[in-house]
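Reminder to self: tokens first, then the designed residues, so the page reads top to bottom the way the pipeline ran.
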């Protein structure tokens, strides 16, 4: 249970990462991924990387520079331009549905204009899910200069699109529906220099 805890990625650049284990019974037609990050990086970095054997960027949350997030599904991406962070935690949720190809992006509990991405696509279920590195092959192929350095917390993955109420609940850390990956019951393995620490502040 990682309640009130964070992963601290201590080095920059870093070869460290955290492997997450999700119980996926079937491929995903819809999903939502949420997490919080706290970093002073200005170079590109990966936040959440979900790779299958056929597609290394099956789901990817990537920050190429301050003020921009890229959300990948099946190797294609859309860009969400956001205000540059003021040196605080940033909470992001990204959701996608195959039927419409609608991608939603929420930053700190606020929705951005929706975009279209990979309509009719299906996300594979046999996945390597990593925090802190961007996979260029299944479970590996890292570029150190895309690595994350800083603090990560509140990681969730659902096999559905969350309603606006639930998106806001995720931001406020309120009660949430059962998830494939949930911060309060996370199955994970640390690889390299990552430390689990208490939150410095709420």
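Designed residues (202 positions):
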């Amino acid at each position: 249970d990682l309640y009130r805890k964070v992963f601290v990625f201590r080095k920059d650049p870093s070869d460290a990462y955290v492997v997450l284990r999700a119980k996926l019974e079937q491929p995903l037609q819809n999903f939502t991924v949420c997490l919080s990050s706290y970093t002073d990086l200005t170079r590109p970095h990966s936040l959440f990387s979900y790779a299958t054997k056929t597609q290394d960027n099956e789901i990817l949350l990537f920050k190429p520079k301050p003020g921009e997030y890229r959300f990948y599904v099946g190797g294609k991406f859309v860009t969400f331009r956001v205000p540059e962070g003021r040196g605080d935690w940033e909470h992001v949720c990204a959701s996608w549905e195959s039927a419409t190809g609608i991608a939603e992006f929420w930053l700190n509990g606020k929705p951005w204009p929706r975009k279209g991405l990979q309509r009719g696509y299906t996300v594979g279920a046999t996945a390597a899910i990593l925090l802190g590195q961007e996979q260029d092959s299944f479970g590996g192929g890292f570029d150190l200069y895309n690595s994350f350095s800083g603090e990560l917390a509140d990681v969730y993955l659902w096999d559905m699109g969350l309603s606006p109420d639930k998106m806001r609940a995720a931001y406020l850390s309120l009660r949430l529906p059962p998830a494939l990956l949930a911060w309060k019951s996370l199955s994970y393995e640390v690889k390299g220099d990552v430390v689990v620490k208490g939150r410095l502040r709420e």
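The radius of gyration is 15 Å.
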